[in-house]
Amino acid sequence: ITVNLAPADLPKESGRFDLPIALGILAASGQIPVAALEGYEFAGELSLSGELRPIRGALAMVLAAGRTGRRFVLPAQSAREAALCGEPILHADSLLAVCAHLCGQTPLAECPPEPCGDAPGGLPDLADVRGQARAKRALEVAAAGNHSLLLAGPPGSGKSMLAMRLPGLLPPLSSEAALESAAVLSLAGAFTPEHFGRRAFRAPHHTASSAALVGGGGVPRPGEISLAHHGVLFLDELPEFERRVLEALREPLENGRIHIARAAHRAEFPARFQLVAAMNPCPCGYHGAPSGRCRCTPDQVARYRGKLSGPLLDRIDLQIEVPALGAEELQGAPSGEASAAVRARVIAARARQQARQGKSNALLAPREVEAHCTPDAAGAALLRQAMGRLGLSARAYHRVLRVARSIADLAGSVPVTATHVAEAVQYRRFAQD
Questions:
Q1: SS3 (DSSP) at 364
Q2: Of the residues 33, 140, 150, 353, which has the fewest C-beta atoms closer than 10 A?
Q3: What pTM does this model have?
Protein backbone atom coordinates (compact mmCIF):
# COMPACT_ATOMS: atom_id res chain seq x y z
CA ILE A 1 0.00 0.00 0.00
CA THR A 2 1.40 3.39 -1.00
CA VAL A 3 0.20 6.48 0.84
CA ASN A 4 0.89 9.83 -0.80
CA LEU A 5 0.98 12.85 1.56
CA ALA A 6 1.03 15.68 -0.95
CA PRO A 7 2.52 18.24 -1.27
CA ALA A 8 5.85 16.53 -0.73
CA ASP A 9 7.76 19.68 0.28
CA LEU A 10 5.42 20.39 3.23
CA PRO A 11 6.88 18.89 6.44
CA LYS A 12 4.77 16.20 8.09
CA GLU A 13 5.43 15.26 11.68
CA SER A 14 3.86 13.51 14.67
CA GLY A 15 1.28 10.74 14.51
CA ARG A 16 -1.75 12.95 13.81
CA PHE A 17 -2.01 11.47 10.28
CA ASP A 18 -2.43 7.89 11.55
CA LEU A 19 -6.23 8.04 11.83
CA PRO A 20 -6.92 9.66 8.41
CA ILE A 21 -4.46 7.25 6.71
CA ALA A 22 -6.15 4.24 8.32
CA LEU A 23 -9.61 5.48 7.31
CA GLY A 24 -8.40 6.14 3.77
CA ILE A 25 -7.13 2.57 3.48
CA LEU A 26 -10.38 1.18 4.89
CA ALA A 27 -12.44 3.28 2.48
CA ALA A 28 -10.26 2.34 -0.52
CA SER A 29 -10.60 -1.35 0.33
CA GLY A 30 -14.39 -1.09 0.66
CA GLN A 31 -14.57 -1.78 4.40
CA ILE A 32 -16.26 1.57 5.15
CA PRO A 33 -18.37 3.70 2.76
CA VAL A 34 -16.38 6.41 1.00
CA ALA A 35 -19.34 8.81 1.05
CA ALA A 36 -19.41 8.67 4.85
CA LEU A 37 -16.09 10.53 5.00
CA GLU A 38 -17.63 13.67 3.50
CA GLY A 39 -18.08 16.52 5.95
CA TYR A 40 -15.48 15.31 8.46
CA GLU A 41 -11.92 16.15 9.44
CA PHE A 42 -9.87 13.46 11.20
CA ALA A 43 -6.69 13.57 13.28
CA GLY A 44 -5.24 11.18 15.82
CA GLU A 45 -2.37 8.85 16.60
CA LEU A 46 -3.07 5.11 16.55
CA SER A 47 -1.53 2.53 18.80
CA LEU A 48 -0.98 -1.04 17.56
CA SER A 49 -4.20 -2.06 19.34
CA GLY A 50 -6.23 0.56 17.44
CA GLU A 51 -6.58 2.84 20.44
CA LEU A 52 -6.57 6.57 19.65
CA ARG A 53 -3.92 8.61 21.43
CA PRO A 54 -3.95 12.40 21.98
CA ILE A 55 -2.08 14.70 19.61
CA ARG A 56 -0.27 17.97 20.07
CA GLY A 57 -1.81 21.18 18.70
CA ALA A 58 -5.44 20.06 18.39
CA LEU A 59 -6.83 23.48 19.33
CA ALA A 60 -4.49 25.31 16.95
CA MET A 61 -5.45 22.93 14.16
CA VAL A 62 -9.18 23.49 14.62
CA LEU A 63 -8.75 27.26 14.81
CA ALA A 64 -6.63 27.27 11.64
CA ALA A 65 -9.26 25.27 9.77
CA GLY A 66 -11.80 28.03 10.43
CA ARG A 67 -15.55 27.70 10.31
CA THR A 68 -15.83 25.34 7.35
CA GLY A 69 -18.88 23.47 8.63
CA ARG A 70 -16.93 20.20 8.68
CA ARG A 71 -17.00 18.22 11.91
CA PHE A 72 -13.75 17.18 13.57
CA VAL A 73 -13.18 13.68 14.90
CA LEU A 74 -10.38 13.60 17.46
CA PRO A 75 -9.09 11.43 20.30
CA ALA A 76 -11.09 11.97 23.47
CA GLN A 77 -8.29 13.82 25.31
CA SER A 78 -7.62 16.13 22.38
CA ALA A 79 -11.32 16.79 21.73
CA ARG A 80 -11.80 18.39 25.14
CA GLU A 81 -9.09 20.89 24.30
CA ALA A 82 -10.29 21.55 20.74
CA ALA A 83 -13.90 22.08 21.85
CA LEU A 84 -12.88 25.32 23.54
CA CYS A 85 -13.04 27.05 20.15
CA GLY A 86 -16.80 26.44 19.95
CA GLU A 87 -16.66 24.16 16.89
CA PRO A 88 -18.51 20.79 16.87
CA ILE A 89 -15.98 18.16 17.95
CA LEU A 90 -16.64 14.42 18.07
CA HIS A 91 -14.43 12.28 20.29
CA ALA A 92 -13.49 8.63 19.93
CA ASP A 93 -11.38 6.16 21.91
CA SER A 94 -10.47 3.79 19.09
CA LEU A 95 -10.42 3.23 15.34
CA LEU A 96 -13.31 0.75 15.72
CA ALA A 97 -15.47 3.46 17.32
CA VAL A 98 -14.80 5.81 14.38
CA CYS A 99 -15.65 3.06 11.88
CA ALA A 100 -18.88 2.24 13.76
CA HIS A 101 -19.87 5.89 13.54
CA LEU A 102 -19.13 6.16 9.83
CA CYS A 103 -21.06 2.96 9.15
CA GLY A 104 -24.10 4.34 10.99
CA GLN A 105 -23.98 1.81 13.83
CA THR A 106 -22.93 3.72 16.98
CA PRO A 107 -22.77 7.53 16.73
CA LEU A 108 -19.85 9.27 18.39
CA ALA A 109 -20.57 11.67 21.23
CA GLU A 110 -19.94 15.37 20.78
CA CYS A 111 -17.57 17.08 23.19
CA PRO A 112 -19.32 20.17 24.60
CA PRO A 113 -17.33 23.42 24.60
CA GLU A 114 -16.13 24.61 27.98
CA PRO A 115 -16.71 28.27 28.86
CA CYS A 116 -13.83 30.72 29.07
CA GLY A 117 -13.26 31.46 32.72
CA ASP A 118 -11.14 34.03 34.49
CA ALA A 119 -9.11 31.94 36.90
CA PRO A 120 -7.08 34.16 39.25
CA GLY A 121 -7.65 31.75 42.13
CA GLY A 122 -4.70 29.66 43.21
CA LEU A 123 -2.13 32.25 42.13
CA PRO A 124 0.44 33.61 44.60
CA ASP A 125 -0.88 36.61 46.54
CA LEU A 126 0.90 39.95 46.72
CA ALA A 127 0.08 40.12 50.43
CA ASP A 128 2.81 37.51 51.02
CA VAL A 129 5.52 40.06 50.15
CA ARG A 130 6.58 42.08 53.19
CA GLY A 131 7.81 45.63 52.71
CA GLN A 132 9.08 46.64 49.25
CA ALA A 133 6.37 49.27 48.82
CA ARG A 134 8.15 50.90 45.87
CA ALA A 135 8.61 47.60 44.04
CA LYS A 136 4.95 46.71 44.60
CA ARG A 137 3.94 50.08 43.20
CA ALA A 138 6.08 49.47 40.12
CA LEU A 139 4.45 46.06 39.72
CA GLU A 140 1.01 47.68 39.84
CA VAL A 141 1.98 50.30 37.26
CA ALA A 142 3.42 47.58 35.01
CA ALA A 143 0.20 45.59 35.26
CA ALA A 144 -1.96 48.66 34.61
CA GLY A 145 -0.30 49.51 31.30
CA ASN A 146 1.14 46.14 30.22
CA HIS A 147 4.66 47.53 30.66
CA SER A 148 7.93 45.59 30.86
CA LEU A 149 9.74 45.62 34.20
CA LEU A 150 13.30 45.08 35.44
CA LEU A 151 13.89 44.33 39.13
CA ALA A 152 17.47 44.75 40.35
CA GLY A 153 18.53 43.85 43.86
CA PRO A 154 20.61 41.54 46.07
CA PRO A 155 19.76 37.86 46.54
CA GLY A 156 16.75 37.26 48.76
CA SER A 157 15.25 40.72 48.36
CA GLY A 158 12.01 39.35 46.88
CA LYS A 159 12.49 39.86 43.14
CA SER A 160 11.20 36.42 42.16
CA MET A 161 8.31 36.64 44.62
CA LEU A 162 7.21 39.90 43.06
CA ALA A 163 7.49 38.58 39.51
CA MET A 164 5.43 35.47 40.27
CA ARG A 165 2.61 37.64 41.60
CA LEU A 166 2.20 39.70 38.45
CA PRO A 167 -0.26 37.28 36.72
CA GLY A 168 -2.59 37.64 39.69
CA LEU A 169 -2.75 41.41 39.12
CA LEU A 170 -3.58 41.29 35.41
CA PRO A 171 -7.14 41.65 34.11
CA PRO A 172 -9.01 38.66 32.67
CA LEU A 173 -8.29 37.63 29.12
CA SER A 174 -10.86 38.21 26.43
CA SER A 175 -12.26 35.10 24.72
CA GLU A 176 -10.18 35.80 21.60
CA ALA A 177 -6.96 36.35 23.56
CA ALA A 178 -7.57 33.23 25.65
CA LEU A 179 -7.97 31.16 22.48
CA GLU A 180 -4.79 32.61 20.95
CA SER A 181 -2.79 31.84 24.09
CA ALA A 182 -4.23 28.33 24.38
CA ALA A 183 -3.57 27.58 20.70
CA VAL A 184 0.14 28.43 20.97
CA LEU A 185 0.50 26.42 24.17
CA SER A 186 -1.30 23.56 22.44
CA LEU A 187 1.38 23.45 19.73
CA ALA A 188 3.97 22.76 22.42
CA GLY A 189 1.80 20.30 24.31
CA ALA A 190 1.82 22.65 27.31
CA PHE A 191 -1.89 23.46 27.47
CA THR A 192 -4.40 22.05 29.93
CA PRO A 193 -8.13 22.86 29.61
CA GLU A 194 -8.34 23.53 33.36
CA HIS A 195 -6.13 26.60 32.88
CA PHE A 196 -8.07 28.02 29.94
CA GLY A 197 -8.47 31.76 30.47
CA ARG A 198 -5.48 31.98 32.81
CA ARG A 199 -2.49 34.01 31.66
CA ALA A 200 0.63 31.99 30.92
CA PHE A 201 3.67 32.43 33.14
CA ARG A 202 6.89 31.20 31.56
CA ALA A 203 10.21 31.25 33.40
CA PRO A 204 12.98 29.67 31.28
CA HIS A 205 16.36 28.95 32.87
CA HIS A 206 19.24 31.29 32.00
CA THR A 207 20.94 28.46 30.06
CA ALA A 208 18.12 28.54 27.47
CA SER A 209 19.27 28.75 23.87
CA SER A 210 18.10 31.31 21.34
CA ALA A 211 15.88 28.71 19.65
CA ALA A 212 14.30 27.77 22.99
CA LEU A 213 13.60 31.40 23.87
CA VAL A 214 12.39 32.89 20.59
CA GLY A 215 11.62 29.73 18.60
CA GLY A 216 13.37 27.81 15.88
CA GLY A 217 14.47 24.35 14.86
CA GLY A 218 14.60 22.59 11.51
CA VAL A 219 10.81 22.81 11.40
CA PRO A 220 10.25 26.10 13.26
CA ARG A 221 8.39 25.81 16.54
CA PRO A 222 7.30 28.52 18.96
CA GLY A 223 9.72 29.47 21.74
CA GLU A 224 9.14 30.75 25.26
CA ILE A 225 8.23 34.26 24.11
CA SER A 226 5.37 32.80 22.05
CA LEU A 227 4.30 30.41 24.78
CA ALA A 228 3.99 33.50 26.98
CA HIS A 229 1.66 35.18 24.44
CA HIS A 230 -0.82 37.39 26.37
CA GLY A 231 1.00 36.32 29.53
CA VAL A 232 4.20 36.94 31.47
CA LEU A 233 7.77 35.99 30.53
CA PHE A 234 10.02 36.00 33.59
CA LEU A 235 13.77 36.04 33.00
CA ASP A 236 15.59 35.55 36.29
CA GLU A 237 19.33 36.22 36.49
CA LEU A 238 19.05 38.31 33.33
CA PRO A 239 22.80 39.00 32.81
CA GLU A 240 23.51 35.25 32.96
CA PHE A 241 21.67 34.68 29.67
CA GLU A 242 23.88 34.67 26.60
CA ARG A 243 24.01 38.12 25.06
CA ARG A 244 22.93 36.91 21.61
CA VAL A 245 19.91 35.24 23.23
CA LEU A 246 18.86 38.47 24.91
CA GLU A 247 19.41 40.51 21.77
CA ALA A 248 16.89 38.29 20.00
CA LEU A 249 14.22 39.79 22.27
CA ARG A 250 14.55 43.26 20.81
CA GLU A 251 12.31 42.79 17.77
CA PRO A 252 9.43 40.93 19.49
CA LEU A 253 9.44 43.44 22.38
CA GLU A 254 8.64 46.13 19.81
CA ASN A 255 6.43 44.25 17.36
CA GLY A 256 4.72 41.52 19.38
CA ARG A 257 5.63 38.91 16.74
CA ILE A 258 8.68 36.84 15.85
CA HIS A 259 9.69 35.91 12.29
CA ILE A 260 11.82 32.76 11.95
CA ALA A 261 13.50 32.03 8.61
CA ARG A 262 15.21 28.79 7.65
CA ALA A 263 16.60 27.62 4.32
CA ALA A 264 13.39 25.86 3.31
CA HIS A 265 10.81 27.17 5.76
CA ARG A 266 9.58 30.43 7.22
CA ALA A 267 7.31 30.84 10.19
CA GLU A 268 5.73 33.69 12.11
CA PHE A 269 4.52 33.28 15.68
CA PRO A 270 2.70 35.71 17.99
CA ALA A 271 4.76 37.01 20.91
CA ARG A 272 2.80 39.73 22.69
CA PHE A 273 4.23 38.98 26.12
CA GLN A 274 4.87 41.09 29.20
CA LEU A 275 8.54 40.91 30.15
CA VAL A 276 9.60 40.83 33.81
CA ALA A 277 13.32 40.43 34.43
CA ALA A 278 15.40 40.20 37.59
CA MET A 279 19.11 40.66 38.15
CA ASN A 280 21.70 41.19 40.86
CA PRO A 281 23.53 44.52 40.99
CA CYS A 282 26.94 42.84 40.62
CA PRO A 283 28.49 39.36 40.24
CA CYS A 284 28.42 38.64 43.99
CA GLY A 285 25.02 40.27 44.36
CA TYR A 286 25.77 42.66 47.22
CA HIS A 287 26.94 45.84 45.50
CA GLY A 288 25.90 48.86 47.54
CA ALA A 289 24.73 46.79 50.52
CA PRO A 290 25.19 48.52 53.93
CA SER A 291 26.96 45.43 55.25
CA GLY A 292 29.89 46.03 52.90
CA ARG A 293 29.95 42.38 51.83
CA CYS A 294 30.62 43.24 48.19
CA ARG A 295 34.23 42.82 47.05
CA CYS A 296 33.60 43.38 43.34
CA THR A 297 35.79 45.96 41.65
CA PRO A 298 34.21 48.77 39.59
CA ASP A 299 35.43 47.03 36.44
CA GLN A 300 33.71 43.80 37.45
CA VAL A 301 30.47 45.62 38.18
CA ALA A 302 30.64 47.48 34.86
CA ARG A 303 31.43 44.28 32.97
CA TYR A 304 28.54 42.47 34.66
CA ARG A 305 26.00 45.17 33.86
CA GLY A 306 27.53 45.55 30.41
CA LYS A 307 26.16 42.14 29.50
CA LEU A 308 22.86 43.97 28.97
CA SER A 309 23.04 46.13 25.89
CA GLY A 310 21.78 49.69 25.83
CA PRO A 311 19.17 48.98 23.12
CA LEU A 312 17.68 46.15 25.22
CA LEU A 313 17.53 48.21 28.41
CA ASP A 314 16.03 51.06 26.44
CA ARG A 315 13.07 48.81 25.61
CA ILE A 316 12.28 48.01 29.27
CA ASP A 317 9.75 50.53 30.57
CA LEU A 318 10.29 50.31 34.33
CA GLN A 319 13.70 49.69 35.92
CA ILE A 320 13.89 49.80 39.71
CA GLU A 321 16.11 48.62 42.55
CA VAL A 322 14.73 46.21 45.12
CA PRO A 323 16.73 46.73 48.34
CA ALA A 324 17.39 44.01 50.89
CA LEU A 325 15.23 44.15 54.03
CA GLY A 326 16.58 43.78 57.54
CA ALA A 327 15.12 41.54 60.24
CA GLU A 328 13.33 44.44 61.91
CA GLU A 329 11.63 45.47 58.69
CA LEU A 330 10.56 41.90 57.94
CA GLN A 331 9.22 41.25 61.42
CA GLY A 332 7.60 44.65 61.89
CA ALA A 333 6.14 45.10 58.43
CA PRO A 334 2.37 44.51 58.30
CA SER A 335 0.82 42.23 55.73
CA GLY A 336 0.72 43.93 52.38
CA GLU A 337 -2.27 44.70 50.22
CA ALA A 338 -3.90 41.63 48.70
CA SER A 339 -3.68 40.95 44.98
CA ALA A 340 -7.47 41.23 44.64
CA ALA A 341 -7.48 44.89 45.72
CA VAL A 342 -4.61 45.81 43.39
CA ARG A 343 -6.19 43.83 40.56
CA ALA A 344 -9.40 45.85 40.90
CA ARG A 345 -7.46 49.08 40.36
CA VAL A 346 -5.60 47.56 37.41
CA ILE A 347 -8.86 46.44 35.78
CA ALA A 348 -10.30 49.95 36.21
CA ALA A 349 -7.18 51.50 34.65
CA ARG A 350 -7.26 49.07 31.70
CA ALA A 351 -10.95 49.87 31.19
CA ARG A 352 -10.09 53.57 30.87
CA GLN A 353 -7.44 52.73 28.27
CA GLN A 354 -9.83 50.59 26.25
CA ALA A 355 -12.48 53.29 26.28
CA ARG A 356 -9.98 55.98 25.26
CA GLN A 357 -7.78 54.23 22.70
CA GLY A 358 -8.87 50.59 22.38
CA LYS A 359 -5.56 49.12 23.58
CA SER A 360 -3.20 49.15 26.55
CA ASN A 361 -0.79 52.05 26.95
CA ALA A 362 2.30 49.93 26.22
CA LEU A 363 0.98 49.25 22.70
CA LEU A 364 0.53 52.89 21.70
CA ALA A 365 2.35 53.98 18.55
CA PRO A 366 4.38 57.24 18.66
CA ARG A 367 1.58 59.20 16.99
CA GLU A 368 -0.94 57.80 19.50
CA VAL A 369 1.41 58.72 22.35
CA GLU A 370 1.29 62.34 21.25
CA ALA A 371 -2.49 62.19 21.11
CA HIS A 372 -3.20 60.48 24.45
CA CYS A 373 -0.11 60.89 26.66
CA THR A 374 0.97 64.53 26.24
CA PRO A 375 1.48 66.00 29.73
CA ASP A 376 0.49 69.44 30.94
CA ALA A 377 2.94 72.36 30.79
CA ALA A 378 4.60 71.54 34.12
CA GLY A 379 4.92 67.87 33.19
CA ALA A 380 6.40 68.71 29.79
CA ALA A 381 8.99 71.00 31.39
CA LEU A 382 9.92 68.31 33.89
CA LEU A 383 10.31 65.73 31.14
CA ARG A 384 12.57 68.03 29.09
CA GLN A 385 14.76 68.51 32.15
CA ALA A 386 14.89 64.75 32.80
CA MET A 387 15.85 64.01 29.20
CA GLY A 388 18.80 66.38 29.47
CA ARG A 389 20.04 65.06 32.80
CA LEU A 390 19.51 61.35 32.17
CA GLY A 391 20.31 61.36 28.45
CA LEU A 392 17.08 59.63 27.51
CA SER A 393 16.62 58.49 23.92
CA ALA A 394 13.56 59.20 21.80
CA ARG A 395 12.35 55.66 22.50
CA ALA A 396 12.78 56.19 26.25
CA TYR A 397 10.95 59.52 25.95
CA HIS A 398 7.87 57.80 24.53
CA ARG A 399 8.10 55.00 27.08
CA VAL A 400 8.18 57.49 29.95
CA LEU A 401 5.04 59.11 28.55
CA ARG A 402 3.29 55.74 28.27
CA VAL A 403 4.18 54.90 31.87
CA ALA A 404 3.04 58.34 33.03
CA ARG A 405 -0.27 57.76 31.23
CA SER A 406 -0.68 54.45 33.11
CA ILE A 407 0.04 56.17 36.43
CA ALA A 408 -2.60 58.78 35.59
CA ASP A 409 -5.08 56.04 34.69
CA LEU A 410 -4.51 54.34 38.04
CA ALA A 411 -5.26 57.67 39.72
CA GLY A 412 -8.34 58.23 37.56
CA SER A 413 -6.83 61.42 36.16
CA VAL A 414 -7.71 62.63 32.66
CA PRO A 415 -4.63 64.87 32.17
CA VAL A 416 -1.06 63.63 32.64
CA THR A 417 0.43 65.94 35.25
CA ALA A 418 3.93 66.68 36.50
CA THR A 419 3.36 64.29 39.43
CA HIS A 420 2.72 61.41 37.05
CA VAL A 421 5.73 62.31 34.89
CA ALA A 422 7.99 62.56 37.96
CA GLU A 423 7.05 59.06 39.10
CA ALA A 424 7.52 57.67 35.59
CA VAL A 425 10.99 59.23 35.33
CA GLN A 426 11.98 57.61 38.63
CA TYR A 427 11.40 54.23 37.02
CA ARG A 428 14.15 54.95 34.46
CA ARG A 429 16.92 55.76 36.95
CA PHE A 430 18.55 52.33 37.33
CA ALA A 431 20.04 52.19 33.81
CA GLN A 432 21.59 55.63 34.32
CA ASP A 433 23.07 54.93 37.79
A1: coil
A2: 33
A3: 0.88
